[in-house]
Amino acid sequence: MRSPPGNLHAFPCRAVTRPRAQRFRSTSAYPPCALKPKPCQRQARMADTPLNVIRLGLMKIFEYRTDPDAFRYLDITEELFEATDAFQRGPLSSKWRPWRVDIKGEPKPMPDLFQVDHRIPVFTQKALECLRPRLASHIEILELECPNAELFAVNIYRRCDSLIPAESDFRANRFGNIIEVNQGAFDHARVSDQGMFVIPRHGSVFMTEPLYDTIQAIHLSGLRDTEVGCSNCP
């Protein structure tokens, strides 16, 4: 049995605005030259950006990260954990068979928001009713089998090519896959109506500020405060 990783941490917000002519534009997702900026260039770009410019983003962006240290968490079999790769690749509802999941971590409080791996948000019935109107149409809600609660997995099966590599700080492996977004600048026009979204070559789920504010306003529990960046004018 495997539980969600506990070594999670928050990231600072940093959005960089630049003259229109200098902004990175790509027809493909992330070319290698953009994925691997030289450390000296990246550090110089960040250091030379005034704080008043950093905060000019139109909307904050958060990473969906639950807090298993403070709340109960989901436990699934090794077989199901391997099956999480099917998420974010396309619709699953036509062949979906509810997964059996168990809630662990008593006597910690029961959260409204769970997570399986880093790519699958899981909502309680209460959370689903409150957040569904703010989710985009290319998001599936899949029922789970749980003896302790009504739970629903969220499959975001269309990727949003919105990260602006030239204005972001992130780590990528030698294959061009993004390992971690430290400080991200996102295309506002592409993410403003998404609610939740995922980006190419990365599995983590991101949230827009209106969705995050809704979660806070109605006191849905379970998340860490993981602000990772802002959306900028394209």
Could you list some keywords that capture this structure?
four-stranded antiparallel beta sheet, alpha+beta, 18% helix, 234 residues, single chain, disordered N terminus
If you had to describe this structure to a student in words, what would you say it looks like?
The protein is 18% helix and 24% strand. It has helices at 32-35, 39-47, 51-54, 78-83, 125-131, 188-191, 209-217, and strands spanning 59-63, 73-75, 102-104, 113-116, 120-124, 139-143, 151-156, 169-172, 178-187, 196-197, 206-208, 227-232. Strands 8-9-12-1-11-10 form a six-stranded mixed sheet. Residues 2-56 have low confidence and may be disordered.
User: What class, by secondary structure content?
Assistant: alpha+beta
H/E topology pattern:
HHHEEHEEEHEEEEHEEHE
If you compute it from the alpha carbons, what radius of gyration comes out, rounded to the nearest whole angstrom? 18 Å
Q: Looking across the biggest beta sheet, what order are the strands in?
A: 8-9-12-1-11-10
Which range best describes the helical content: under 10%, 10-25%, 25-40%, 40-55%, 55-70% or over 70%? Answer: 10-25%
Average pLDDT confidence is: 80
pLDDT below 50 for ≥5 consecutive residues: which ranges? 2-56
Q: Got a strand count?
A: 12
Q: Which percent band covers the strand fraction?
A: 15-25%
Quick rundown:
The chain has helices spanning 32-35, 39-47, 51-54, 78-83, 125-131, 188-191, 209-217; strands spanning 59-63, 73-75, 102-104, 113-116, 120-124, 139-143, 151-156, 169-172, 178-187, 196-197, 206-208, 227-232.
Topology:
Blueprint: H1 32-35, H2 39-47, H3 51-54, E1 59-63, E2 73-75, H4 78-83, E3 102-104, E4 113-116, E5 120-124, H5 125-131, E6 139-143, E7 151-156, E8 169-172, E9 178-187, H6 188-191, E10 196-197, E11 206-208, H7 209-217, E12 227-232
Parallel strand pairs: 9-12
Antiparallel strand pairs: 1-11, 1-12, 2-3, 4-5, 5-7, 6-7, 8-9, 10-11
